[in-house]
Amino acid sequence: MANYRAIPKGYMTVGEAAKKMGVTVRTLQYYDREGLLSPSALSEGGRRRYTDKDIIKLHQILSLKSLGFSIDGIKNRLTSIDTPEEVAAALAEQGRAIEERISALTQSLKDIKALESEVLKMQSVDYSKYADIIVNLQMGNDNYWLIKYFDDDTLNFLRSRFDRESGLSFIKRFNFLRDQAVRFANSGVLPESEEGQAFAREFWGLIAEFTGGDMTMLPKLLKMGEMVDGAAEWRQTQ
Q1: Which of 16, 23, 120, 181 is the most exposed place for a label (fewest CB within 10 A)?
Q2: Picking from 3-17, 157-171, 186-200, which range would have the lowest pLDDT averaged per residue?
Q3: Topology of domain 2-101, per CATH?
């Protein structure tokens, strides 16, 4: 029955707590029902009463909500704040969550700017290519910009060949071999050497996988390489 005794100094009504944190009374009532933030006490009439500790916890909740976490996600991230060490740990966790969100937003902004640039370079509106560029940006494919040079038949073929997982795997292996080719060239490894021949077999196997064994795609890929302009470094590497 202690929760129902007269409320001592230092407690706030639900309206006062809501005003202090810039939320609505309905929001606090909702958080109570969801088990996120229960008031520290109830008045004799059953009205919610909050403390400064509740305000700190509410700040945790609002910070996590602003980062896009769901109710369950917030519940999983809320920590005890009964000691200085726990308060510091809670703040550190908030900091990490904010840093992760900043990183994600920074990448999203970078992707948007990249897509904007590609859209302006394309001669017509092509939503399929836009979608492919977005997917490849999300996959971390640095060569996403090449998509605008592919014709529809080639793109449809590649869409049928690769999903996200296999696409990521292919990109990783291609980038490794591309960088290895540059290292071999810089260190003087000859194409006819054992190392050079082993590399050639592995690279050709990757090309065969990319084309699905359809060698009619090779002239298209070579022609596309000739069409690429404004990317001297890429052309030199290729």
Answers
A1: 120
A2: 3-17
A3: Multidrug-efflux Transporter Regulator; Chain: A; Domain 2 (1.10.1660)
